[in-house]
Amino acid sequence: MTTSSSPNEFRTLRQSMGIPTLVFFGLSYMVPMTVFTTYGIVNEITGGFLSTAYLLTLLAMLFTACSYAFMGKMVPSAGSAYAYTRVGLGSGVGFLTGWTVMIDYILLPMLNYLLIGLYLAERFPSVPAWVFSLIALVLVTGLNIVGVAAVKSANVVLVLLQVVFFAIFFVYAARAFDPSAQLLDPFVGPGFDITSVAAGAAVLCLSFLGFDAVSTMAEEAREPRRSIPRAVILTTVIGGLFFVAVSWFAHMASPDVMTGDAADVAAVEMLTRIGGNLLTALFLAAYITGALGSALASQASVSRILYAMGRDRLLPRQIFGTLSPRFRTPVGAIIVVAVISLSALVADVDFVASIVSFGALSAFTMVNLSVIATYLVHAERRTVATYLLYGAIPAGGFVLTAWLWTSLTPVAVILGLVWVAIGVSRLLWHTRMFSRPVPRMHLSE
After folding, report:
1. pTM for the full model?
2. 201: nearest Cα among 56, 62, 37
3. Which of 399, 397, 392, 409 is nearest to 58 (CA)?
4. 256: which DSSP letter?
5. Handedness of CA 386, 389, 392, 397 (dihedral sign)
6. Which tens digits make up the pLDDT trace of 88-142?
């Protein structure tokens, strides 16, 4: 993140990413294994209707993905929700949107450490989960400090490992279908409650951050006004249908899901039922390596964003805005993220996932409003087709994402609003009550 840039600064980026590459990037960012991250929790929230929750989330995200596509045609630059909101709703709202999205960046490393601890502790019950989380945190923090970056090609290996796992999973699940289960049982049936399904869908929004990530690659894409919108839609549809398929197969093979304190690791129990130790071991290998890679990348990314904010005095410069003389890495920012991530030792998946979803849903809601403002409020010419395309679709996306937003847990909403309030205070401070220009940010890190 930087507060200023020359007009040609980003034109040096190599525009080499076509639609297939962008879609692969978005799907890998989604991390397909994330379907098991909230498997037990959302099954418990929805009363077993995880597949329906994914369908509802996909519907809401598809409307929002269309809004991203519309804004991608208008704003072919990095920055994603921040850039779109800044154009559509003004620099002040754009700043607050960028600030709100920051909560996702900061908490994603913690979520990875938390899940590593939970799943390894399930496999090795004699060791407390917090021990595994702490080891992972120290390892990743140390690597980030010394500047050991993850090789980009490693993402391909991790995704291929997940592809192998899911191919085996579908085979095992199909062979283990419960004879008493009906084809529509994962979607509707006794105990179905739309309010509970919406609450579950709100948590699942973190699974769809991949299409938001695609929009950040606008300056490295070929023909971004065409390729980015198409890649955003394709990533959303392919990822969403995949999540629905996995949850459907899981329900058909293992209708009964562990709840209560065991909900966090219910996926492991389900996999053990249908595939035994072999499938569970393959799952742990794919999941833990993916989580470690995600933690390394997300902690590196957010620490550099915080460093840029410190360098530009949006955060305390002495802590965030300096580099280590020896390693040339933002040690202060890395350590701050690590300290926040220590919460993984006591936090639970539902709590962290809900707060991450707060940031995502807030950004999605603002992008939907940005389309209406850009194409209808600020536009000089409007037609019936314009109102239908740029009015109805983003309005539908706004209603759905706002509905899901209100379905989050009260604690997540309160903490999210506290974060927004801090952003408002920072904005007022840096603009001296709007007597100075709003700082400009680039979330292209």
Report:
1. 0.80
2. 56
3. 397
4. -
5. negative
6. 898 889 889 888 888 888 888 898 899 899 889 888 889 999 999 999 999 889 8
